[in-house]
Each structure stands twice: as structure tokens, then as C-alpha cells.
Design goal:
380 residues; alpha/beta; Rossmann fold; 7-stranded mixed β-sheet; 17 strands
């Protein structure tokens, strides 16, 4: 069988070069050998990286947040849509907590996951819960509209394909992937689309001379899809990244693109195609502006630690006081809220659609001015 590396090289040779976004999509989601499509098991201590999902308390906190949203909407039923649900581990934890509160039968879930193997694992995990539906892509939900509830994701947007750009003088160039002397390398050229410059301008970004960065055009398609589905409710995002001013700060000369394997930073994302995770920081300013185009308004933007202290204080307090299992629950609290752990690594953005007059506890932790999108955050 031809390897993914061979498949990618043959396509690049045929076309001469391809945008990095196309290469990244192949490396992560190609049906034959893509990093995420080959199956679950990429996260955790035995995988390539750790994330919030490995902390059991995280699902409890999310369920607590969703119940607050549910009550605020005043709806009898509540629909959850998880973007990039992997093997269903997070959704299972959420529904277990909803079940303990007697609310799981009035909740429905649409879990979106590109990997067929991961969807099989998710189906087994979630088989005991009613109203659970699995989909390969957001487009599979095109027939669903008028949803009231919450669309949520954990480290989904940072894995979407990105274009690589570099400013040279007053000119924006794009970094393509080509093959030279048997190696995959970057090759600068004219931008493949004017949308790259437009996206940077939308976030108020002007790269310094020689500075590189990433632009995720795919985020626009995702936000448009979410806008079509969700009639009233919330879009909840947890991810690596920051405001545009942070993501494109002058000291980030080479941008934010990273590649990981076995918890180690890889030297180049162009090597070992399909065997390594590839990620780039999320521009939350752009997410807010893309959401505004779909009728969403930013309600909360905060570091994960302060966010959970505001949104889940009761849950955290109970966990800290639980001294069973050698104080494991207390360690989970520290992992999720400490600024030196996940509490400082992740950002939380909550956007609302048709939720005027509704307030969330987490708004006390919001630092919306950091988004650099002041025209979007005036409360109605």
C-alpha cells in the first residue's frame, strides 16, 4: 500500500507546489493515513499530547456550565453539538453528569468527528444514552436548523488547516509546500487567494517585515455552519491562542505553527506526514468577528483558570473538599485552573445568539477588551 507520505509527494510533484493549508489537511485528515483519521488514542500520556479531556473534572464543569445555559434559555430540551468529539470521552463524561442531575433524557447530542474509527469508539461509549447522533462533518447537519442549546469544542479550531504567510517589505507572500532534493520544503510565492490579506486586515493585523504567521480560512466555513444550525444559544470554545495582538505579536517571528509527537516538539511539520500532530494558535479576535457575521455576540473571553473559578465555583469547591482517592480531585482542580497548567494555557470564548438579557456567571471573569473588538461587545 502506498504511504500517505508518498501520496502527498506525488500530488506535489504533479502540481509543483500546494498551499500549506492543503498539505496540513492531508496530514491530519486524509482518509488513508491522516493523523486524526487513523483512529483514537492520540491524546493522553501514552499518546502525543495532553488536553483538558484527560481530566475527569473537566466534563463535570462543562455539564455544570451547560445546565446554567439551559436554565437561562428556559427551554424544555437542550441540544449539544460537539465539534471534533474524537472517541466520545468528553461527551460521555458530560452525559454522566447530566444523568446524575436527572437531565440527560431531555438533552440531545450531535457529535461531529472526521475519523471513522473514532466514531465507532464514540458510538460504543455513548450507546446507553438516548438522542445521541454521530456525524462525519458539520455539513452532515445541514438539514438541522432551529437548534436551541450550545455548540462546543475543545482544541478543535487549532487543528483546522492554516495558510502560512510571510511579509516581505510591503508585500504579503504565501508559503507553499514543494519538494526539493527529496525533501519537502516551504516555497514563497504570491498569495493563493486575496482572502488571506483580508483576514489579517479584519483582525487589525500588520505583520512586521520578515515576520511569518498563519491564517485559518477554514474557521469561516465552520462559523457559517454553526450559524445555520443554531437559532438560539451559545458557542463555547476552549483552545490554545489569544487575541490577534497576541497571536501576531512581533516577537512571534516564525508564527505559532507547531508539530508534536510523544509530547515532544518536532523540528518540522513537513516530516513524517500523518504521524504527527500539527497545530497553530487560534486568533480569537477573528473568531469573534466571524461569529458576528452569523449573528453571534461575544459574552465571555478569559483565561481558562479565572473562567472556571467564576463559572464552576461550586463544583471546584466540592472537588477540593473531596479527600478520597488521595486527593485526586484537588489535583484535577489545580490542573484545570492553575496559571502554570491548563488554567493559563487555554482561552475560553463564549458567543451568544439571540440571548439578549441573559447573563452567565462567567461574565465576571471576562476580559473582552483583550479581543481588540470593542465594537462587538456592547451589551444589548
Amino acid at each position: 500500500m502506498i504511504s500517505l507520505d508518498q501520496t502527498v509527494r506525488e500530488e506535489i510533484r504533479r502540481r509543483g507546489r500546494v498551499p500549506f493549508a492543503e498539505f496540513m489537511a492531508w496530514a491530519l485528515t486524509h482518509p488513508r493515513g491522516g493523523y486524526y483519521t487513523t483512529g483514537p488514542g492520540r491524546t493522553g500520556r501514552s499518546g502525543d499530547f495532553l488536553t483538558n479531556v484527560q481530566v475527569p473534572l473537566y466534563a463535570e464543569l462543562l455539564a455544570h456550565q451547560f445546565c446554567e445555559m439551559w436554565d437561562a434559555l428556559g427551554s424544555q430540551r437542550f441540544t449539544l453539538v460537539e465539534l471534533g468529539g474524537n472517541d466520545g470521552a468528553l461527551a460521555e463524561g458530560i452525559f454522566r453528569e447530566l444523568e446524575s442531575r436527572g437531565r440527560h433524557r431531555s438533552a440531545s447530542l450531535h457529535l461531529i468527528e472526521a475519523s471513522p474509527a473514532a466514531r465507532v469508539a464514540a458510538r460504543k461509549r455513548l450507546s446507553r444514552y438516548p438522542h445521541v447522533h454521530l456525524h462525519a462533518s458539520l455539513e452532515d447537519l445541514e438539514h438541522i436548523a432551529g437548534v436551541e442549546g450550545c455548540v462546543y469544542s475543545n482544541e478543535f479550531f487549532d487543528a483546522l488547516p492554516v495558510h502560512r504567510v510571510r511579509r516581505i517589505g510591503n508585500r504579503l507572500t504565501e508559503l507553499y509546500v514543494t519538494e526539493k532534493e527529496g525533501r519537502l520544503v516551504e516555497d514563497p510565492g504570491d498569495p493563493s487567494t486575496p482572502q488571506l490579506a483580508a483576514a489579517l486586515a479584519q483582525s487589525g493585523v500588520l505583520l512586521a517585515d520578515g515576520q511569518e504567521g498563519e491564517v485559518c480560512l477554514a474557521a469561516g466555513d465552520v462559523m457559517a455552519g454553526v450559524g445555520r444550525i443554531l437559532a438560539r444559544g451559545f458557542l463555547w470554545t476552549a483552545d490554545y491562542g489569544g487575541s490577534a495582538a497576541e497571536v501576531y505579536a512581533p516577537h512571534r517571528v516564525r508564527g505559532t505553527l507547531r508539530s508534536f509527537s510523544k509530547h515532544q516538539l518536532a523540528e518540522s511539520p513537513l516530516e513524517a506526514v500523518g504521524e504527527r500532530d500539527i497545530t497553530a494558535h487560534v486568533d480569537f479576535t477573528r473568531l469573534a468577528r466571524l461569529g458576528a457575521a452569523e449573528g453571534f455576540r461575544p459574552l465571555v473571553y478569559a483565561d481558562q483558570g479565572p473562567y472556571w473559578i467564576a463559572a464552576g465555583e461550586a463544583v471546584l469547591k466540592k472537588a477540593v473538599e473531596d479527600l478520597s482517592e488521595g486527593g485526586r480531585r484537588g489535583r484535577e482542580v489545580r490542573q484545570l485552573v492553575h496559571p502554570g497548567a491548563f488554567g493559563g494555557a487555554f482561552r475560553i470564548l463564549i458567543q451568544g445568539k439571540n440571548v439578549e438579557g441573559i447573563g452567565l456567571r462567567a461574565e465576571t471573569a471576562a476580559r473582552l477588551q483583550r479581543l481588540g473588538a470593542g465594537d462587538l461587545v456592547v451589551r444589548g
